[in-house]
Amino acid sequence: MTEHPQSAHEQDSGGRPTVRIHEADPAAVEADFFHIGELVPTEDQERIAAVRDWARKNVAPIADEYWERGEFPHQLISQLPELGIAGLQFNGYGAPGRGALVAGLTSMELARVDPSFATFYGVHSGLGIATIMQCGSEEQKQRWIPAMLRWEKLTAFALTEPDVGSGTARGLTTTARREGDTWILNGRKKWIGNATFADLVVVWAKDEADGEVKGFVVEKGAPGFTPHRIEGKVSLRTVQNAEIDLRDVRVPETDRLQEAHSFKDTAKVLRSTRLGVSWNAVGCAMGAYEAARNYALEREQFGKPIAAFQLVQDQLARMLADITACQTMNVRAAQLQDAGRLTDQQASMAKMFSTSRVREVVAHAREILGGNGILLDHDVARFWADAEALYSYEGTRDMNALIVGRAATGISAFV
Fold this sequence. Notes:
With 415 residues, the protein is an alpha+beta fold. 49% of the residues lie in helices and 16% in strands.
């Protein structure tokens, strides 16, 4: 049988096989094997390319340093207005109105460089702006949204509590009591990204009068509102998560979100932001894959780059397949969101699947690097660690699986 020319090995003068080099597929090199970037108009492709270029030039060189120190690069915030990426999916009040797919691809590009910075972006643009857009009154939107779009008012979203994570729909313990035109908030929140420096923090609390969950915007420096930075994290270290103490925090009725009447309204926000985290997982996987691929081409053993070995190529192929599967699922979910048809179970499936696959991708990347895989020097260690937080927050894999399972069976298995 005649051997296919591309699978043939050349030999050196000693009869030993040498590596035969072929031109790599640019789509595989860039981890966009099915060209999903071409699904948006040229204008948006250029916008996304500008974000990619900015992140590679400004975030990538300092990502490891700030991650290791557990600090946030505040100096980069002043550069963000020029990119025009805040509230990308929304219309009105100065928002770009580019839709969920463009917003998702933008999040993916940021996470491809640094999942921590992408999370900061998601908290402000996905959770903060989305909450005001979906739950605020017309007056509140006009008052807050323009400044949020210009990054002049940074936001945080305080839902999770120290003893209440997955059970927030029923077990929220932070309370709100109305006294005339003022609400009094008491309780604790945990894992609240951006809370140490946010100008506006959306706090979700249970109304003592009717037992329903309502939303309140608390301004930075409000008496009784005390954020404590969470130390000792091993994932998304650059994100400034905080535990918040709320002791008789007074919020005027004008700062209560007028269209947030129950947890169902909270869930509407979480549906879209859950998809945002799914996009972050895709970006994290892409970054890990690209770092591992570059390393495999440069690292030599037994006289040739390790990328020439079958076991390494098998891992790269598995990683690329996982990334492509996640990309295509997220693309369809974003299209459904833009059409106003995205359901909770669809968002949950995307988040469940993508964050599960990212753990596999970063594990393959770490394995390709061997001992160097635990060093920040090659970026893979950071992606490897950050994947763990993406896997857990905005709904754990198990809780999202139960949402999908309920859709499949018609039976709720939560408790």
